[in-house]
Structures are given as C-alpha cells and as structure tokens.
Specification:
Elements (H helix, E strand, L loop, with lengths): L1 E6 L2 E4 L4 E9 L1 E12 L6 E6 L5 E3 L7 E6 L4 E6 L8 E11 L4 E5 L3 E6 L1
Length: 120
Amino acid sequence: QVQLVESGGGLVQAGGSLRLSCAASGSIFSINFMAWYRQVPGKERELVARISRDGITNYADSVKGRFTISRDNAKNTVYLQMNSLKPEDTAVYYCNADIVKLIRRIDNHWGQGTQVTVSS
C-alpha cells in the first residue's frame, strides 16, 4: 500500500507565499517523477510543476518565476514553494508520483488534495 499525503495548503492574501509538501509512504523502492497538479471546479486538472528523480524540472507558463518545485529523495517528499500568489492560483492542489514498488511494479498515485485559496 502506497500513500501520498499533502500538507501546507490554506488561505493567503494575494502576493503572499505558501509551501506545499507531499510525503509518500508505504512499500516504495524508488520514485520516478513527482508532480503537482491543480484543479478548480468545472475545469480539468492541470499540471503545475514536475520534477524528475534527477531534479530536472518543468513548469506551467502561468507559474514560471513564482513557483519552485523540489524534492528530497531520502524522505520521499516533494515540495512546492509558491510565491507572489494570485487569486487565479486558487485551486485544490494534488500531488502525483510514479512509484516503483518493492515488487518492482510501477504505479501512478495521487494524493487527496489540499486547498489553496488566495484572496484579493
């Protein structure tokens, strides 16, 4: 059994910062890519940022220069530092990861989501 547990969401004023964390636990051999997605009601879930095991990152154009994704492979944890937040960043943020299980099977997993609300 593998779980992804997010934390760090909340309410912040425009221009403020938040740091999201997502810790993976369970029968994990290693983790390939880790990513953050977000979703607002009535819209499709969209990729915010992604990081490979080697630390290669890519970002949605809407967050470039404001958000930074990082990971700690020893802790099986991914972070999303969000600065200069805008009201349009308001969404439920989901952690996603490709996890190599102890039996060497690779499965994609989602966290339960954490709400980020940016007030104007």
